[in-house]
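Support case: flavin-adenine dinucleotide complex. Customer-provided input:
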Amino acid sequence: MSRYDLIVAGAGLGGLSFLWHLLEAGIGARRVLVLDRSLDVRGDRTWCFWGDDKAEFSSTANTSWHLAALTFEDETLTKEMLEHRYYCISSDAFRAKVLARINACENITVIESNIREIGEDESGPYVVNDQGRWEADWVLQSVRLGASDASRDVRYPVRQHFGGLEIQTETPVFDPQCFTMMDFRVEQQGGVSFVYILPFAPDRALVEHTVFSVNTMSPGEHYALTEAYVQERLGVQYDIKRREFGDLPMDDRAPDQQSSAHVFNVGIVGGHIKPSTGYTFARVQRRTRAMAAAFAATGRLKRIPDAPIRFAFYDRLLLRLLHDKPEVGLTVFQALFKRNSVDRVFRFLDERTTLHEELSMFLKLPFWPFISGLPAVLPRIFTQWLTKIPHMGLMLATGILMTWVMAIGLGLAGWHPGAGSLLSDGLWITLTTFLSTGVFITAHECMHGLVAPGSPRINRAIGWFATWSYAGLSYDALNRAHHVHHAKPATEEDPDYHRGNPNIVRWYIDFMSQYSTWKQWAWMSALTLTFIAALSLPIERVLLFWAVPLVVSTVQLFVVGTWLPHRPGKYLGDGPLRARTLDLHPILSLLACFHFGYHYEHHARPDLPWWRLWQVRGMGGETRPQILADPTVRVSRAVSSG
Ligand SMILES: Cc1cc2nc3c(=O)[nH]c(=O)nc-3n(C[C@H](O)[C@H](O)[C@H](O)COP(=O)(O)OP(=O)(O)OC[C@H]3O[C@@H](n4cnc5c(N)ncnc54)[C@H](O)[C@@H]3O)c2cc1C
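Agent response - structure generated as follows:
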């Protein structure tokens, strides 16, 4: 089977948008395989988005509006848009336009077949569908992967679910200039509920009953409530021309741009859906354009910069409100649109506003519901923010190395706090052990190029210093062996695997002895002599504050990073993923071994530094990287024509 430069797995909004932008940027000689279960006309979705008159795909839009209405129990706000138009494009028109261009390109092959698995092994990333296995240098996927759905810590699992009817009325009742963004004059169904109307002509419109809530409703319930609304509010006879149903995640998981080193995510899986609104179309265009430009220029898929973290913070505050206090949601929407132009709200939702503009918007909102959400939202945003700090790997590595040297120095000199008391000495030895483990983990990060991404020389220099000062170990030898371990873990070729006797003690001795050399012994002896003879330090102090932490940390690293994950038995994956995981709470996991216990996760995502492994915790649990039930799959199944 021939190998491709890129496989696009899933040709929905995300996949097709990427291909469109790749063709715009220039595909060159690159060969691309597109896989989707079906590219037939589906008639299932109308995609709306806002933009100026040059917005991407605005010329393909079937309708656009410059007036937006919002109706509350006591008032209707009709707002004019000066900077934006609100566009509506049918998913079929979009698909037809992109597919026509794809079909005209010789370098792109399209196969319609069900995808069963997406993964990455020693031969690179691959996709398995009903026709077999396909390999490429890169995979871009929008077919929900278990791996990318790994975050278990979704705190506000809100969904946007809706069912709409495209109706033809007997008499003209709609204003084709003005769409109804939200009409709240409906019963609130356990979450913010409203009707959304897209008028295509005076006698034709899509009328859609929508709810933001945790518990979803069936298509039938939504259609019945839409019909009740039409009868009560419009009072006209009508024919149903088409139905559409959707159930989209609006939750606060932090989706990742990548599933593994060469598998990138796009569309909902890649976090292109705006969590607090469910709008995806324009975000997909912006992000896939950047991804496609990078691929066209370099032949590689790359992460693109995320929006400033404050927008994720606002999203979470709103989601928390929709989740915990849906009854307040309505008041917030009313204040938001009453006191701000729609243009400004759209710019805010596009994450293009300045901090000053945002503050002036928030001051016009009832702010106590948001303030009361801060204790719940701030810690999670803070940890997310930490992962975005530039040079974080370098700062952590330097911090660990420096504190380790200080901890040993103070311990040996007897200058640590409370020196001489059993408790303080015990705590100091524990701290030094933890930091010693951190020093080896730092060297391990260097082997994966993660301390200073893109700078092999800095990684090697820090890795060399860490392994040598830790125990006189050769960084280059460890590095070579470690990459063989990643390629063939828990096999006879794995240098870290047992040598025929899986007994933990025997294995530990074999493991340690294979990395020891005469140079290491010479270095360790020289250090010991320096401490005892040259610096006249008491032997017991050298033992307790230097030797014990070192030996205990090797045991800790061996048990958590080698024995537990790779001992014979059932593994969570095959090939490079022959590993298990120590599924502890993130705080315990950090204390246990700098998250090295999330070992399956590390083998699946060697591109993630230790301090980010908790974010993909669970990908080695029940949810291995295989196709899981996808909300978008549910969506397309549920759609039917009237
Ligand atoms: C009715 C409806 C109306 C919407 N309206 C709007 C709107 O107005 N504005 C807006 O911005 N967003 C809207 N959305 C949301 C938007 O459609 C989605 O967010 C968007 O389609 C997500 O893009 P995606 O590429 O992640 O998924 P999809 O577009 O669903 O693409 C996924 C693709 O993967 C394929 N696939 C899935 N599983 C497999 C498998 N096992 N094997 C092979 N192929 C597979 C599917 O066939 C599909 O082509 C709407 C959604 C619905 C359902």
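The pocket of flavin-adenine dinucleotide is lined by residues 10-15, 36-38, 45, 47-49, 114-115, 142-143, 244, 246, 248, 267-268, 273, 279-281, 627, 630, 632-633, 635 (CB under 6 Å).

Case will auto-close in a few days if no follow-up is received.
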